[in-house]
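Hi W.,

Here's what went into the run:
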Amino acid sequence: MASTEKRAAKGLILSKGAWTPEEDSKLAEVIAVHGAKRWKTIASKAGLQRCGKSCRLRWMNYLRPNIKRGNITNQEEDLILRLHKLLGNRWSLIAGRLPGRTDNEIKNYWNSHLSKRIRQKGESQGVDPTRGCGRPRGRKSAAATGAEPGEMISSDAFDMDEFFDFSNESPMNLEWVSSFLQHYNRGQDTEE
DNA sequence: AACGACTACAACCGCTCTGCC
DNA sequence: GGGCAGAGCGGTTGTAGTCGT
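Here's what came out:
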């Protein structure tokens, strides 16, 4: 890995590679005391040769409580497929609907399992279903702007703030998906 | 047993957005 | 309003494990 070596030589990179159990426990310890914010501070307080960004990623994807590992169920898979159809590659939004799943895990699962399967299906049907609805780069959530997913459907038909408010319902409830799909499909029909 | 190809997933990188001064 | 640091996101890469020859 030549580029990494170059950056390491510049002092831009600390420790790299897989996390050890010792590093994990140190990180968890510091977060328990200081909370999961100020990652730069956390990294230095833990005495890890890792950047704050790396610590955050490790915590968010693996160390956080209530993280589910492996064994994506059929129900979850179905939900991922539906959500991807709606939202495209917006993994954090999709993850928000799958309790215990992280955006990284869903993204990996999509890239290694679902995209391949869908591509095969698409080839047999002569379409390219891996193409999501896409979006401009940037992390502004749909809840914050109310704009991006709303562009796919008529805004007066759907309350986007309510749609992306995950606070007071069961995340695995599929009714909202069906409801959204109905509105979405209607919007597509009128466009064509 | 050895080796190359493939797969799955952990981790990193670059970019954008937000909040604070 | 501008600059900076922190946080978050999606894309990409690295690598260990598995499989086929």
